[in-house]
Amino acid sequence: MAAAKSNRGWSLALVLLLLLCCQLCLSAEDWHFTSENYIGRIPECSVACDRLYVTGLERMGIQIKDRQKLSSVKYRIVNREVDEFKADEKIVGDFAFLFIRTKTDGTTNLNRERTAYYSLNVKAKVTLTDGRVVNSFTRVSITIADVNDAPPLFMEYRYQFDVPNTLPVFSTIGEVKATDADEGFNAEIYYAFDEVTEDFAVHPTSGSVYLTRALSHSGRTQYNNQLVAYNRGRGRQTKVPIQFTVVERNQHVPTFTFMPRPAMSAYTPVGMTVLVIKVCKLVSRQPFTHSSYLSKMELDFVLMAVIISASGVLISFTLLDSA
Ligand SMILES: [Ca+2]
Ligand SMILES: [Ca+2]
Questions:
Q1: Pair (226, 312) in one structural domain
Q2: Which ligand has the minimum distance to the alpha carbon of residue 116?
Q3: What are the angstrom distances between the C-alpha of 15 and each of 4, 19, 22, 24, 26?
Q4: Most C-beta atoms within 10 A of its C-beta, which of 22, 181, 219, 226?
Q5: What's the CA-to-centroid distance between 252 and ligand 2, angstroms?
Q6: Same domain assignment for residues 42 and 132
Q7: Top-ranked range on mean pLDDT: pick from 20-29, 109-118, 313-322
Q8: Same domain, 239 and 275
Q9: What is the number of structural domains in the chain?
């Protein structure tokens, strides 16, 4: 009889112990984050961030199943290498929200062009009314949303092109190029001239520079303007000087007139003048094909003699006269 009572006592104690253990086990699981990974975004602030909050598609934090058992919740970022963010907690109804925000020390900045992503390890310390402490961990992946804070930058600090005065209209003169450190629309670049001109054009997206009017009409030797590269978004733009220098090219082909002289024969002595050539409209300052010294003269025409060798081969031109 006494043994039976003793067995019932042990059984009752064992049941109570199992119930207590089961309750403790379930209680610990009840105080975990709703997810092991959260995804959020925050705007770029390359100067100083003023308490910016990370936003996401789902709420971050711990679901409170029994408010009576909860004493406090404390969130903390445990990455030692991340110094830009702080974790806050706020209990609203049956949820202990996790808020990730930038610090407010006035020196924190988020430069997407330097660091585009952050991965935070967050620890939750949950203190229950019965004195127990439950720890839970989660990861918050943060994407920095780009802001158009970088203006386009030209590859050159100034552009200079030599343009032949004979270049046909709509010919390509050259190309300009700028880059942008932002992304998406904020990095799209368009080109234009600062001052409207009818002489030149720049393709808005490729940067190719064209001649749009014959240069001979004005007689100018130089054109100066400002080249602009701008973003589609909020008016970020950069200007650099651009200069076109007109380079003269020979537009007048010399004409030759052969002045009669005695015909050659088998007895024509070596060194005798056999032909005189008259070259008209010699106005170019550019090198002449066979007589470079002619190119330095601004004459309407010159007279040249052709000297032949004994074998009848042309060997030189000689300047005879000019007018
Ligand atoms: Ca930009
Ligand atoms: Ca940016």
A1: no
A2: 2
A3: 17, 6, 10, 14, 17
A4: 181
A5: 56
A6: yes
A7: 109-118
A8: no
A9: 3
C-alpha 13 – ligand 1 centre gap (Å)? 72
Residue ranges with CB less than 5 Å from ion ligand 1: 148, 150, 180, 182, 186, 231, 236
CA of 314 from ligand 1 middle (Å) equals: 67
Single-letter amino acid, residue 96: A
Does the predicted model carry a pTM greater than 0.90?
no
Q: How far apart are CA 142 and CA 116, in angstroms?
A: 9
Domain that holds residue 263: 255-322
pLDDT digits (tens, 9 = 90+) for 77-126: 999 888 899 999 999 999 999 999 998 888 888 999 999 999 999 999 99
CA-to-CA distance for 86 and 298, rounded, in angstroms?
81
Give the Å distance between the CA of 77 and the centre of ligand 2: 26
For ligand 2, the distance from its centroid to the CA atom of residue 151, given in whole angstroms, is 9
Please give the sequence-ordered ranges of beta strands (E in DSSP) within 187-272, or none if there are none: 189-193, 200-202, 208-211, 222-231, 237-247, 255-259
| Tens digit of each residue's pLDDT (9 = 90 or more) over 162-198 | 999 889 999 999 999 999 999 998 999 999 999 999 9
310 CA to centre of ligand 2 in angstroms: 80
Tell me, what's the pLDDT at 48?
82
